C-alpha cells in the first residue's frame, strides 16, 4: 500500500500490477481521505491511514471498505501497528506520540512539546523495535528519540 498525498488517496500494488489501483480516494463522507500521510497494516489485514487533514486514523478492511476511525489527533503524520495489535500514532500537531487500542481507547502518551529529553516537536513517525523500545522521529528537533519503557506499557 502507498499513500498518495497529492491526490488524497491510498493505492494498492501487487507484484503483477505495476500501475496499482486506487483503494480509497478523495470524496465526501467518512471514508474519504484528506492529505493521507502514512499507512500501516495490522495482522488481520486491517489498513490504518494517518489521515492528516481530517485529524484522525482512518481504518479500512483489506478490501478498502471503511470500518472506523480513531480521533483525537492534530495532523497525524505517522501510524504503526504493534505485534499486539495496538496502534501507535505520531500526533504531529500535538507534539506527542499516542498508543491506543483499535477501539480508540488511549493506552499511553509519550512526549510533550519541547526540545529537552522527552520533548517532541512535530514527530512524524513512531514504531516499536524488536526489543519493544519506542523509536520516534522527532522531526522538528532534528533527532530520533528512544523510549525504553514502551514495552512495559503493554504496547
Characterization of the model:
- The protein is mainly beta and 155 residues long.
- The protein contains no helices and 16 strands.
- The chain has strands at residues 2-4, 9-14, 17-24, 36-41, 47-51, 56-60, 66-71, 78-81, 87-91, 96-100, 106-110, 112-113, 119-120, 123-128, 134-138, 143-147.
- The protein has a 4-stranded antiparallel β-sheet with strand order 4-5-6-7, with no helix packed on it.
- Strand 6 and strand 7 form a beta hairpin.
- It starts with a strand and ends in an 8-residue tail after the last strand.
- The model has no long low-confidence stretch (mean pLDDT 89).
Mean pLDDT: 89
Gyration radius over CA? 15 Å
From the N-terminal CA to the C-terminal CA, the straight-line distance is 24 Å
Give the low-confidence spans: none
Shape: globular
- Describe the oligomeric state of these chains in a short phrase: single chain
User: Strand sequence of the main sheet, in spatial order?
Assistant: 4-5-6-7
Give the SSE order as H and E letters. EEEEEEEEEEEEEEEE
| Secondary structure: number of strands | 16
The helix/strand class is: mainly beta
Contiguous helical run count: 0
Major sheet, described briefly? Answer: 4 strands, antiparallel
Strand content: over 45%
What is the helix fraction of residues, given as a range?
A: under 10%
Amino acid at each position: 500500500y502507498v499513500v498518495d498525498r497529492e491526490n488524497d488517496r491510498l493505492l494498492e500494488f501487487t507484484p503483477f500490477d505495476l500501475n496499482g489501483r486506487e483503494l480509497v480516494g478523495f470524496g465526501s463522507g467518512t471514508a474519504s481521505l484528506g492529505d493521507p500521510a502514512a499507512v500501516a497494516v495490522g495482522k488481520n489485514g486491517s489498513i490504518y491511514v494517518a489521515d492528516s487533514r481530517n485529524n484522525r486514523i482512518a481504518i479500512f478492511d483489506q478490501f478498502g471498505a471503511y470500518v472506523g476511525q480513531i480521533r483525537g489527533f492534530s495532523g497525524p503524520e505517522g501510524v504503526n501497528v504493534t505485534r499486539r495489535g495496538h496502534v501507535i500514532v505520531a500526533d504531529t500537531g500535538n507534539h506527542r506520540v499516542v498508543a491506543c487500542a483499535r477501539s480508540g481507547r488511549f493506552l499511553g502518551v509519550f512526549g510533550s512539546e519541547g526540545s529537552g529529553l522527552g520533548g517532541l516537536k512535530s514527530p512524524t513517525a513512531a514504531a516499536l523495535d524488536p526489543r519493544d523500545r519506542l523509536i520516534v522521529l522527532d522531526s522538528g528537533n532534528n533527532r530520533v528519540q528512544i523510549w525504553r519503557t514502551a514495552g512495559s506499557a503493554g504496547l
